[in-house]
């Protein structure tokens, strides 16, 4: 398993940031979550809720073609750390192939060194988000 290049660049920026700046960097990524397409805004029930997250967090996966995956995330602005993780995933995984997404280590987020700045409960939410992303990709590929 390997971290895709786009995501590895993000991981390296977190690793090189001093501890006191990592949370700020995560909060910057909360601003990078693209707005939901109109379809998902109008049909929120078409998104899957990640119940392990403390905050209402929803995900949807689309496959514009068999070579690319596009993830859509919805998390309230008042949950900036969770939204920040969604921003990291959006920047690091959107547009990759299903195989690249599935090859991403489930716990890649540990390399972001966020365990020093956010709660274990938030980290468990991140793990659940990754699990859902991959499950949706596997289901699309008929692997589940």
Automatic annotation (TrEMBL):
Residues 12-136 form the Fe-S metabolism associated domain. This is Fe-S metabolism associated SufE. It comes from Truepera radiovictrix (strain DSM 17093 / CIP 108686 / LMG 22925 / RQ-24). Belongs to the SufE family. InterPro entries: Fe-S_metab-assoc_dom. Gene3D superfamilies: 3.90.1010.10.
